[in-house]
Amino acid sequence: xxxxxxxxxxxxxxxxxxxxxxxxxxxxxxxxxxxxxxxxxxxxxxxxxxxxxxxxxxxxxxxxxxxxxxxxxxxxxxxxxxxxxxxxxxxxxxxxxxxxxxxxxxxxxxxxxxxxxxxxxxxxxxxxxxxxxxxxxxxxxxxxxxxxxxxxxxxxxxxxxxxxxxxxxxxxxxxxxxxxxxxxxxxxxxxxxxxxxxxxxxxxxxxxxxxxxxxxxxxxxxxxxxxxxxxxxxxxxxxxxxxxxxxxxxxxxxxxxxxxxxxxxxxxxxxxxxxxxxxxxxxxxxxxxxxxxxxxxx
Length: 298
Fold this sequence. Notes:
Blueprint: H1 6-13, E1 22-26, E2 37-40, E3 46-48, H2 56-60, H3 70-77, H4 80-93, E4 97-101, H5 107-112, E5 118-122, H6 126-134, E6 138-140, E7 151-157, H7 166-176, E8 177-188, H8 193-196, H9 201-207, E9 214-215, H10 218-227, E10 230-238, H11 243-252, H12 257-260, H13 267-280, E11 285-292, H14 294-297
Parallel strand pairs: 4-5, 4-7, 5-6, 7-8
Antiparallel strand pairs: 1-2, 2-3, 3-9, 8-11, 10-11
């Protein structure tokens, strides 16, 4: 089996993964038939057999993720993920200088930005960046253009798994943080219940994607953060969808169960479901909070 994934190589160097413990999960991703999905059985990390197809230029001219427009923004701003992030990070961002990297449609900027003293974004997509500027946001196309030692909080929401050189990125992010600043990274989880516990092939076919170069575990995420000069304060499991969504996947093999079967949604039930998955480390998302180490600051 041959593969060239520098993220995996880095994790091997950090003694998290083992090149001799790799198995093929499938020989395709949802948008390409020439990329294998591999897993390190020692660490549980899931990664693609190649990363050559993804670099910054891929995102520069990529079409926007969302159809932009005033009405659409009202919908985006109130989606579940944005509201969850608002509840989780509102007090952290309040009154602080905050940078969001990979802002996309800018939903989280709209929601959390008014709480911060300074709000800025990094967004390489040309159309998305232009739209965010029209809405009054401060936007940088490249991280290198962001002033050093300028921000108290930096966030990456489902961005880190797209990056070919994560340690280099972390070191660059560290240089943008003021003393005592915090880094928040949210990523999809390799141990997602529908991947690792019930082996839902339809969900795998939907989830494995050419732009997700790696799906992390707690150990791989922590190791990269430490290699990038950060002290890991916490890594938490977060489950983004209710039980109805998992049942819908298992029954129909399609997404959207939280909407199609909304009658099954119950706050107590879904809270309990999330707690069980958290206890078993089977959530669909991991959220890490870290600070620059003293050695990195000197």
